[in-house]
Amino acid sequence: MSTMLEVKDLVVAYGKIKAVKGISFTVDEGQVVSLIGTNGAGKTTTLRTISGLLRPASGSIRFQGKRIDETPAHDIVSLGLAHSPEGRRIFPRLSVEQNLLLGAFARRDGDIKKDLQAAYDLFPILGERRAQAAGTFSGGEQQMLAMGRAMMSRPKLLMLDEPSMGLSPLMMKTVMSTVTTLQEQGTTILLVEQNAQAALKRASKGYVLEVGKIVLSGTGAELLESDEVRKAYLGED
Ligand SMILES: Nc1ncnc2c1ncn2[C@@H]1O[C@H](COP(=O)(O)OP(=O)(O)OP(=O)(O)O)[C@@H](O)[C@H]1O
């Protein structure tokens, strides 16, 4: 299995405050890798840095062997790395379809219609409501839209920032089972979650982030069984 993403000794700071304090991890092709941690652990900061929206203070990020830590964000999308952000960040006044098309901005080929259909196959509600203003969608529907939009760039690696946040258990199940579907279709996934159970169940590999440092790693199953994870993240005594 080849390494798709390699993050090495990554440090990210906001002014004098270090939010990420020297983390290293890898994502292999075809895997779902989960990064879990509580509020403020540095999960979003890590994803935003990989996407090129923030610059590291030190360390390196390689995507398919190529360093990307100085590459502009739009070029990173073109290389095949997409980010579905926390809080979804959809465009509320635009229609569902217009939002999806924005996800294809970096594409130059002519298959965009086919990919729209693939997004509608993945989440039928997006197709049924393609002309509806996205701002009128529920939280779960907006999450589906954000994932569909990220898939429109045909990513090799999809990064999902807390897709389960604020969703009903049923909606969460739908969104999470899509993670498995996308993996089966050949997409590699880096999943950031506070919901350790949902994220680790699906993960080939997981990392636990605490105040900017990786404190534990292992297979998803190993982490779900570990006492530390059970106590801190699954609320067990
Ligand atoms: N723009 C910013 N300016 C200053 N500090 C920031 C900024 N964004 C995040 N931080 C700080 O960096 C740390 C890591 O934040 P980050 O959002 O990466 O955590 P997180 O693990 O994604 O948390 P959450 O699950 O709450 O989203 C926190 O202490 C946060 O307050």
| C-alpha-based Rg, rounded | 17 Å
Poorly predicted regions are none
**Main sheet attributes: strand count, strand direction, barrel closure:** 6 strands, mixed
The assigned CATH architecture is: 3-Layer(aba) Sandwich
Which range does the strand content fall in?
Answer: 25-35%
CATH topology, by name, is: Rossmann fold
> Could you tell me which ligands this complex binds, including any ions or cofactors?
adenosine-5'-triphosphate
Secondary structure class reads alpha/beta
Task: Give me the strand/helix succession.
Answer: EEEHEEHEHHHHEHEHEEHH
What's the structural domain tally? 1
In helices, the fraction of residues equals 25-40%
Quick one: CATH superfamily? Answer: P-loop containing nucleotide triphosphate hydrolases
CATH class: Alpha Beta
Mean pLDDT: 92
Number of helices: 10
Based on Cα principal axes, name the global outline. Answer: globular
Search tags:
alpha/beta, four-stranded antiparallel sheet, single chain, binds adenosine-5'-triphosphate, 10 strands, 237 residues, globular, six-stranded mixed sheet
